[in-house]
Amino acid sequence: MELLPLLQQFVLLFLLLCCSFSSVFPRSHELGILLEVKESLIAGGESLSDWNRSNPNFCKWSGVTCRSGRVVSGLNLSDSSLTGSIPPALGRLQNLLHLDLSSNALTGPIPTTLANLSVLESLLLFTNDLTGRIPAQLGSIKTLRVVKIGNNWLAGEIPASLGNLPNLVTLGLASCTLTGPIPPQLGRLGKLDQLVLQDNQLYGPIPPELGNCSSLTVLALSNNKLNGTIPPELGRLQNLQYLNLLNNSLTGEIPRQIGDMTQLSYINFMGNQLHGPIPRELTKLGSLYNLDLSENKLTGEVPEEIGNCSSLQAADFFGNHFSGKIPATIGRLQRLSFLHWRQNELVGEIPVELGNCTQLTTLDLADNFLSGGIPETFGSLRYLEQLMLYNNSLQGPLPDSLSNLRNLTRINLSTNKFNGSISPLCSSSSFLSFDVTDNSFSGEVPPQLGNSRSLERLRLGNNRFTGELPRTLGKIRALSLLDISGNSLTGVLPAQLALCKNLTHIDLNDNRLAGSIPAWLGTLPLLGELKLSRNQFSGPLPPELFKCSNLMLLYLDGNSLNGTLPSEIGNLEVLNFLRLDHNQFSGHIPPALGNLSKQLELRMSHNSFSGEIPAELGRLQQLQIILDLSYNNLTGSIPPSIGKLSTLEALDLSHNQLQGRVPPQVGEIRSLGYFNVSFNRLEGDLGDRFQRWKADSFLGNSKLCGGPLDQCRRSANKHSSLSEAAIVVLSAITTLAALALLGLGLTFFCKRRREYLRARSDVSCIYSSSKSSHAHRRPLFLNPGSMKREFRWDDIMEATNHLGDEFVIGSGGSGTIYRAELRNGDTVAVKKVPWKDELMFNKSFAREVKTLGRIRHRHLVKLMGYCCNRGAGFNLLIYDYMENGSLWDWLHRQPGVNNKRKQCLDWEVRMQIALGLVRGVEYLHHDCVPIILHRDIKSSNVLLDSDMEAHLGDFGLAKSVVEFYDTTSTTESNSLFAGSYGYIAPGSLTLLSSLFPNFWVFFQLSV
Questions:
Q1: pLDDT category, 163, cuts 50, 70, 90?
Q2: Which positions in this protein are listed as binding ATP (predicted)?
C-alpha cells in the first residue's frame, strides 16, 4: 500500500515532463506534414531552406504561424518562387486558418483535400498556373471569409456551392478561363463585400439575385460574355461604390434605378450594346468621380443636369450617338480632368463655359459636327495636355489666348476649316505630336516648333503654308514623322534636318520645293518613307540616297530630275514602292533593279529611258501593283522573264519602240488585269493567251495579229523587203484579184437585177432643223439601240473652236472634216455639210445619213451620229476618228498630225489595205439589201486606223441600185456630177462602174 503514493507521484512527474516537452516541441505529426509539403514543392532560392528535421521547432520556420505555440494556424508562402503542384497533404493541417500560396508558379488542380480544412478563413491561391475546375467541396468550409484564387488557368463553371458560405466577404475569381453563367446562389451571400469575376468567359444574364447582396461595395464583371439587360434590382445595392461591366454584350437601356446607389463613385459600362438616353437619375450621384459610357449605342442629348455631378473627374462618352449641343452646365464641373466625347453626333458651338474646367488635362471632342471657333476661354486651361478637335466643322483663326497652354503634349485640329496662323499653338515645348492637316492655315511654318525637342510626329499637310522650311526643325532630335505635303513651300530642303536621325517618314509631296535632292538624306539611318512627288526638284539623284538601307517607299515622281539611274539603287533591298515617273531620266534601266526583291510597285513612265528592258526585272517575284515603263524610248524585245511575275496586276509598256513578239509567258500571268503594249513595233501572232484583253491593248502595232486582233494571214515572203521580181508578181496578183472581183460582181448583179428593180428602199432620213441659230440643238441618233454616246452641237463647237481651220484634217466630196476632242476624252471626226440648197441637202447629207445609218462593217467608216441646224447654215456628221489619216497621205508621203505618215508603206501593209478595201466594197455590193454603190472610191476616201486597217468613207455620193433604177424618182438630177475626175468610170452608173475606181486604187497601191 505504501507503493501507491509513490506510483502516483511517478505518473504525475511523467505527465509534467511530457507537458514541458510538448511546450517546447510541438506535436510531431504536424512536423511530418510540413516536411511532406516541402517534398512536394520545388523551392527556388532560399525558400523553405529552414524547413528540415534538424530544426524541429517548425513554428519558427519561414511562412509558418502557430497558435498558442502548439498547432499550425497559418501558412504564408506567397511569392516564394515555388513550382510543382499544391500538396494534398495540406488538407491534414486541420487547425489551419489562413493558407496563402499566391504569386508562385504552381501548376495542376486545386486538391479537393483542402475542403478538410474546416476552420479555414482565407484561401489565397491567385497568380499561379493552376488548372482544372474549382472544387465544389470548398462550399462546405462554412468559416471561409476570403477566397481569392484568380489569375490562373482554372476552367469550368463557378460552383453554385460557393453560395453556401454565409461568412464570405471577398470572392475573387478574376482572370481565369471560367465559363457558364454566374450562379444565382451567390445572391445568398449577405456579408459579401467584393465580388470580382472579371476577365473570364462567363455568359448569360447578370442574376437579379445579386441585388440581395446588401453589403456589396465592389461588383466587377468586366471582360466577359454576359448578355441581357442590366437588372434594375442592382439599384438595391445601397453600399455599392464600384460597378464595372465593361466589355460584355449587355443590351437595353441603363436602368434609372442606378441613381438610387447613392454611394456609387465609379461606373464603367464601356464596350456593350446599351441604347437609349442617359437617365437623368444618374446625375444625382454626387459621389460619382468616373463615368464611362463609351462604345455603346446610346442616343439623345447629354442631360443638362450632368453639371450636378460635382465630384466628376472623368466623363468618357466616346463612340455613341449622342446628339444636340454640349451642355453649358459642364462648366460647373470644377474637378473635371478628363473629357472624352469623341465620335458622336454633337452639333453647335463649343460652350465658352468649358473654359471654367480649369483642371482639364485631356479634352477630346473629335469626330463630331461641331461648328464655330475655339472659345477664347480655352486660354484658362493651363493644365491641358491633350487637345483633340479633329474631324469637325470648326473654323476661323485660333485665339491668341491659346498661347497660355504651355503644357500641351498632343494636339490634333486636322480636318476642320481653321485659317490664319498656327503660332498661338506653338508656346509649349513639350509636344509629342502636332497635327493640323487638312485646314486652311497660312503663313510660314513657325520656327518655335523647333523648341519642342521631344516632338515625334509633325503633320502640317494640306494647308496653305508658304515660305521655306524653318531650319529650327533640325533641333527636334526625336522627330520621326514630318508631313508638310500639299502646301506651297519653296526653297530647298534645309541641311539641318540631317540632325534628325530618328526620322522614319518624310512627306513633302505637292509643294514648290526646288534644288537638287540633298545627299544628306542618305545619312538618315531609319528613313523608311521619302515622298517628294510633284515638286520642282532637278538634277541627278545623289548616290548617297541609296545608302538608306531601311527605305521602303520612295516617291520622286512629277519633278524635273534627270541623268541616269545609278546602279546603286539595287542596294535598297527592302524597297516596296518606287515612283520615278514624269521626270527627265535617261540612259538604260539598270539591271540592278532586279535586286529589289520586295518590290510591290514600280513606276518609271514618262521619262527618256532607252535601251532594252533588263531581263533581271523578272526576279521581282513580289511585284504586284504595277510595272509601268510606258512613254519612254525603250527598244529591243520584251524579255520573257517578265512572265515570271506571277502576282503582277498591271503591266504597261506602251509608247516605246519595242520590237519582236510579245512573249507568250506574259499572257500566262493569271493575276494580270491591265495589260498595255500599244504603240510599239511589235509583231507576230498573239495566239489565244492574250484573248482576254481588248484590242486597245495592242493598238499601234501594225504587224501584230491574232488574239483580240484579226487572225494572222500567211505570207510566203518573211523578209523585210521584196525583190523587184517579187514586186512585179505581187502587182500582177493584185490586178488579177481585182479583175476576178469585177467578174464576180457582174455575175451577182445580173442574177439579182430584176429583184432589185422591184424593191424599194426602206431607209428614211429623219432630221430636225432649227429656224433660229440660237435655238437649242438636241442630239439625233441613227441607231438608238447601238448608240452609247451623246453628241451635242455646243460640245462639238467648243471642241473645234467653232470649226476653226486649225482643226481641219481633210475634206470630202460633200464637206470639210474636223478633228474634235470632246470633254469625256473621246476623239471623233466631224464632217461639216453646208446648206447650199434644199436639193443639195437631200442629195448629199441625207444620202450619207441614210447609207451609213444602216450599215455596220469593220472596213467602213462608222457613223456615230449627226446634228442638224438650218439656222447655222450647215449640218454635222460624227464619225469614228481614224488616227493614220487617208491612204492618199501615205502614198504621197504628206506629213500630217501623225508623224508616222512620213514612213513608207511596205508591201505587207499595202496588201492589208487592199484586202480591207475589197472586203468593204464586197459588203456594200453583196451583203446590203438593196446594194449600195459608193461612186467615189479614191485613195483620199480610204481612211486608216491606228493598226493601218482600211475604212472606206465619204458616202455623200453613194446610191442604192434600187434608187438608181427608180424611174419615178424626182430627186435624181442628171445635171449633178457624181464622182471624182480620174476615178469615175465612163458611162452610166452600174455595179461595174462602181468597181472601176476600186481597181484604180489597187493600181496606185501596186506602184
A1: very high
A2: 832
